[in-house]
Structures are given as structure tokens and as C-alpha cells.
Specification:
single chain, 142 residues, mainly alpha, 76% helix
């Protein structure tokens, strides 16, 4: 059994690593999309930003407005996606389902709370990415 089990354990470890790499790539993609969207929004509102600067608004005020907007949009989108994903997982067959191909993928007990961190983590990542992009873009347009 040990000889047969060892390759399976190694494969499971590699699959776990692939899952973490996929999560990292999803996070990087999220950050890149938010940065691009923030840059586009800042460029589209260049005249408004120039007017705000003329009346005394600081870069922190402008950046805060964009950061709030993109963070809330990301939070709401991630929340909707997480709910849809949880509904999909809830309909997957359980351990005891006979003649089912994908069994045992449902969450058990407290595992159902783990996906609730996805919207929060997404919002934090969007906040950081938007803040970085906004301040960088505002520095460039002085």
C-alpha cells in the first residue's frame, strides 16, 4: 500500500500547489484589471480632476473617491460571484451519492465559512491596487 500511496500523496500535494498558484494568478489578474480600470477612469476624468485641483483639492481627496468607488464595486462583484459559487457547490453530489462522477466536493461544517473571505480579500486587493494606481497617475499629471 505504501508503494501505491506515495505517488498519490505526491500528486495531491502538487495539485494543492497548482490550486495556490491559480489563486495567486487570479489575485494578480484582479489587481491588473483594477489598475487598468482606475487608470482609464482617471484619464477620462482628467478635466474634472484639474478643476478640483484648481479649487484646492489634494491628491488624497481625489484618490479616495476613486478608491472607494472601485473597492465597493469589487466587493459587490466578488460577493455576487461567491454566492453563485456557493450555490453551485451546494448542488454538487455528496459523499453518499451513488453513480455520481464528482462526489465529495461539498463543504463540510465550518468549511462553508471559508469562501466568505473571498469578497473581503478581493476588496482589500482592489483598495490597494486602486490607491497605488490613483496616486501614481495623479503624480504623473501634475
Amino acid at each position: 500500500h505504501t508503494r501505491w500511496r506515495r505517488p498519490l500523496v505526491e500528486a495531491a500535494g502538487r495539485m494543492r500547489m497548482v490550486g495556490w498558484v491559480a489563486m495567486a494568478l487570479i489575485g494578480l489578474s484582479l489587481a491588473a484589471m483594477v489598475v487598468l480600470a482606475a487608470n482609464a477612469a482617471l484619464a477620462a476624468n482628467a478635466r474634472v480632476i484639474a478643476t478640483l485641483r484648481l479649487v484646492g483639492a489634494r491628491d488624497a481627496f481625489v484618490a479616495r473617491a476613486f478608491t472607494r468607488r472601485f473597492t465597493l464595486r469589487t466587493l459587490s462583484g466578488a460577493t455576487v460571484g461567491t454566492v453563485i459559487g456557493l450555490v453551485g457547490v451546494a448542488f454538487m453530489p455528496g459523499e453518499g451519492a451513488e453513480r455520481a462522477f464528482l462526489t465529495g466536493f461539498r463543504f463540510q461544517g465550518a468549511e462553508w465559512t471559508a469562501p466568505l473571505a473571498i469578497p473581503i480579500l478581493s476588496a482589500v486587493l482592489a483598495f490597494a491596487a486602486t490607491r497605488f494606481a490613483a496616486f501614481r497617475r495623479l503624480r504623473e499629471t501634475r
